[in-house]
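Chain X:
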Amino acid sequence: MHKGKAFMCISPLPKEMFSVIKGVKLNLVFFSLCKLN
């Protein structure tokens, strides 16, 4: 965990990619919930 955080602090690219992946995952989760309801 600490290694990943240090790497993200050094390079801005992985941080942005992490945000994008997080957003996509959240969207998929909400979409699944809406489909279930």
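Chain Y:
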Amino acid sequence: MVDQMNKQQLTVIKTSLLEQMKSPVNDLQVQRLTTALARINAENFGECFICKQEIPFSILKINPERVICDKCLEETNTSIV
């Protein structure tokens, strides 16, 4: 999904990730943020782990460690993001 996002959008998300890493709530959040950064480099960032569809930039901008789209989140009724 990285290929569908433009360079500016990725820069915004990377900046958000790095800012969040400066004051993480806990070790799990650090792990999620680090994983999100790795996914950007692996080019599967922004892809829903369940349906493989794109997670909208507007969601990733706020919650860059998000791995499940809204539709799948509702269908699975889970709090895993």
